[in-house]
Design brief:
- With 382 residues, the protein is mainly β.
- The chain has three helices and 29 strands.
- Strands 20, 21, 22, 23 and 24 form a five-stranded antiparallel β-sheet that branches.
């Protein structure tokens, strides 16, 4: 009997130690600690499993896989779509749960939940005043919410002509990119009857994952693909003046011969591209397909590479090669200029990785939650 007792005790201790990367993390100064945070990762989680989670990556490479669950002793919700800091709180859009979770940015304690009272699929959240924000929604609507307590239910559901994924606010206007053009609403009167459309800039199936970006001069940028006879011939970035509501800048990076054997040459575009901008609002980052260089090839003929564009001059330049990367699920460039990718592996609901590419050429991997989709850097948000 003693032998069985010792055996079971050893098994129990082993199981406890194996799971300590999730609920057992000590939080002496709150979940984030005091200046020790490297990045937050929003993990979608497999639909219908309530596995949406926020992972915390510390500078010493320690990872808290599900900070919200650890602190609140309940799941955050189903399909975590986006995280936005507004009025000192994180607002997390939970797509399939049809709610917005309001989270303390230091303790990760829930401070409120905004529950939808009708059909909807919340995606992105942008503030429109000191006390309100608007949520994009795949149900062809925008949803107005409170961003100060008491939160309660949404204030208004606003029907719009097309569904919108990404939003930005500039000049007291709300801009939403669609396949029919860039829709413009007045922030103090969001109504489809008064909406305007800038038809020169729009997204397509493979560019709908590109965020709109606002540069140092207040110009709104969107990424498109240039086509000739249905064939993509270049990656185009167009800039919109929010005051005049028109395209004022347009720059194209040509795509070369897909059969080229020249290492490093741009040979194609990326399905479901991603975009980001540096803290100064000067450099826009995006990814393209290039011919693999010999040192990066490892048997592959193609690779993804990060390029960037200077918003003042319109000049493009190669920034970083990403060998061995298939379809990324998320993409971000840190304030220090490091590239972060969200790797969901084989999309079988196992925990994914953040691939951190440092500027000195090194790569670090962090195991996070299921289906990581967004990397967020506390203290900096475009």
């Amino acid at each position: 009997m003693k032998k069985w007792f010792y055996f079971l005790t050893i098994v129990w201790i082993s199981m406890t130690l194996a799971s300590c990367d999730k609920p057992g993390m000590p939080y002496p100064d709150g979940v984030l600690g005091d200046g020790d945070i490297e990045a937050l990762v929003l993990n979608e989680g497999l639909i219908n499993t309530n596995a949406g989670a926020i992972s915390v990556i510390y500078k010493d490479s320690t990872v808290v896989v599900d900070a919200f669950q650890d602190v609140n002793h309940r799941p955050m919700g189903d399909v975590a779509q986006s995280i936005t800091l507004i009025n000192g709180k994180y607002f997390v859009a939970m797509n399939n749960s049809k709610k917005i979770e309001v989270v303390n940015p230091v303790t990760f304690k829930s401070e409120g939940t905004i529950l939808y009272t009708q059909a909807g699929y919340p995606r992105q959240i942008v503030p429109i005043s000191e006390t309100e924000a608007v949520v994009s929604d795949l149900n062809r609507q925008l949803v107005r919410i409170r961003t100060v307590a008491p939160y309660g239910k949404p204030l208004e559901y606003i029907s719009i002509p097309r569904w919108v994924e990404y939003l930005v606010v500039a000049e007291n206007k709300v801009f939403g990119m669609t396949q029919g053009g860039l829709y413009v609403f007045d922030a103090n009167n969001i109504n489809k009857e008064y909406a305007r459309v800038i038809k020169d800039i729009y997204n397509e199936e493979y560019t709908k994952t590109c965020r709109m970006l606002i540069d140092k001069d207040g110009i709104i940028w969107g990424l498109m693909y240039q086509k000739r006879s249905g064939v993509v011939t270049g990656v185009t970035l167009k800039g919109v003046d929010p005051k005049r509501e028109k395209v004022v800048k347009s720059y194209t990076l040509p795509i070369g011969d897909p059969n080229s054997q020249t290492p490093g040459e741009i040979i194609g575009y990326i399905n479901y591209n991603r975009t980001d901008i540096d803290p100064t609002g000067t450099w826009i980052y995006f990814n393209v397909k290039t011919r693999a260089t010999e040192e990066n090839a490892k048997g592959e003929k193609e690779q993804q590479s990060v390029y960037r564009m200077n918003v003042t001059t319109g000049e493009f330049e190669h920034y970083y090669d990403l060998p061995g990367v298939g379809m990324m699920y998320g993409f971000a460039v840190s304030p220090e200029g490091d590239v972060y990718l969200c790797d969901c592996l084989d999309y079988t609901a196992q925990r994914g990785y953040i691939r951190h590419y440092l500027k000195d050429g090194r790569r670090v991997s962090h195991k996070v939650g299921v289906y990581p989709g967004q990397v967020y850097f506390p203290g900096y948000q475009q």
